[in-house]
Amino acid sequence: MIELLNTDLAEKVDGGFLHISDIIKKHTPEHPIFKVNGESPEDVIKKLQTQESKNGVVIDLRLGAEYFLSGEKHAKKLSEENPYLTINSGEFALLTTHEIIYVPKDLIGLISMRFGKKSGGLINISGFHVDPGYNGIIIFSVYNAGPKPLTLEYKDDVFMIIFSTITKSVEEPKKTYQNQMHLSPKHWAHLVGSQPVSVMSLDNRISKLENWNKLTVGLAIGLAVALGATLLTLILPEILNFFQTGTIE
User: Fold this and answer.
1) What pTM does this model have?
2) Whether 174 and 106 share a structural domain
3) What is the pLDDT of residues 159-193, one digit of tens each?
4) For residue 175, which of 135, 129, 137 has the smallest C-alpha distance?
């Protein structure tokens, strides 16, 4: 029975992960899978062709202009003149792709971050797929779990996407968060005013608490010894006098 099910499933599944050459074939003027404001369709195709020989199935996505850092009140923008953003240890951020993505209805996109960024402690916590039929920029929610601040550069290859076929096209794509072209307050409302919390900062706080406890215990012992010595100084003459005279003054 299991063997029969596997056979039936194998007949339905066609292709699996798509090679970039297949993505280029699906990339039509009517429904471009990748689009970048200010770049011609020919430039987009050239970038895909360059990645085809380098990556095979993995397509790099660049860091977009808009971003939001936890603790801030508004989103900010990168530019050619101001191309760097720094995410501190323990800090959350919303990052956007430079590319506008259209996922064909017969595909699903699987997203991640490049290892060079993850190796420093940057974690994608926003999810790992893009729904069939989605159109817009991709917003990544990330967290710096590393011990040091991480600096990213505008238009640097930070993200990646892989496309996979599905057994049946989705005729009615999800409408939630469709056609996202910019960050908006609804995206960062729950991050406003939050303070960075990292493993390193927690370790420092615990170390300070331990040191304070040691200091407190040391002071308490010293105070007890001093108090005991003072009482002994006051009481000892009375005790000696009692043993000598049998009376207490």
Assistant:
1) 0.72
2) yes
3) 999 999 988 888 776 666 677 888 887 877 777 66
4) 135
